[in-house]
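User: My collaborator sent over this chain with a note saying "see what the structure looks like." That's all I know about it. Can you take a look?
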Amino acid sequence: GRSPVLTYVREYDDNMVRDAILRELERDGQIYFVHNKIESIYHVAAHLKRLAPDARVLVGHGQMSEDDLEQVMVDFYHHEADILVCTTIIENGLDVPNVNTILIDNSDHMGLSQLYQLRGRVGRSNRQAYAYLFYRRNKQLTEVAERRLSAMREFSALGSGYKVAMRDLEIRGAGNLLGAAQHGAMISVGFDLYCQLLAQAVQELRGEEVTEDILPPVDLPVTAHIPEEYIPGEPERIYFYKRMSAVRAVKDVEALQEELEDRFGDPPRPVWDALAILRIRIRCSEIGIASIRTEGANVNIRFQPSVRLTQNAVKLLTVAFKNHRFTPDGVVIPLRGPKALGQVEEMIAVLERAIPGASRKPPAAPVPVGATR
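Assistant: Without extra context I'll predict from the sequence alone. Here is the result:
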């Protein structure tokens, strides 16, 4: 069976890199070296070549043409090279069982679930696998990066993906747990997408048809999560996060809200906001909105390609909402004060009537939700 991946979190060190490469070459294995900056990736490849002159090195990154990249991956798969120096494109790429060492450069810039997924690229055979998470020398690690890397150490055992996703949410705190978009250097997958990937993996293992069913991302400047003070037990928090990520109808959001109130008392603001965002995402999915994102002082609402406002609707709406910008494929709302959620909910109610065909669906319940649909 698979043994846990031995995980080291260290300051970058050439000697350690050389030793890790040579150990893998000795057992005829292969190595991923992840370096996520395209502008310096070829320098890094040349440097590794100097550290281990016998190693055959290939480079792969997302700006290569599709054919070139595919050729690199195929060559690496057939062991025409020992080290693949690459960006995070390998996160969900080709499975190469002969790779049992992964070295991740500048790992403090990556989100926890991303690091976790990258580390999951090794340890797929019965050989001992190694993961090295490096951060650059003499660099003051931010508190968040430090906690994230120590969480990786803590969760070195297999099967701890859930814990990792949870810990990432707790470290991140602010920001939209329920939106696919994350903030700053935390380019991690977001909890609902994580649950989705997990569910898909289970479907694949069972040989079932894999269903893609992710709600549109909504990224608003609110803190939406379940604080530890509200639900102290980690298993319960995981359970409710998972419930949130599975909800696909407004009436189920209400049921969830009632259950939370019943078990844990009146929800604090971050939980209210999480439920509000969930409702917004469900309504977006019903009326054909592809995404809602905060961009500077504006909120940008984009429609799915099949959904368009008529010229007439654009005219009428422009008159009704003077400082908003309407186009056939979206709306830009200027943010006024802290009421972003309310403004977006109002606009969705307006769009529900303005988008051709959307209003034929049963009307969504007003927010905050009282009546069932």
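A starting point for your reply to your collaborator: Residues 170-192, 360-373 have pLDDT under 50 and may be disordered.
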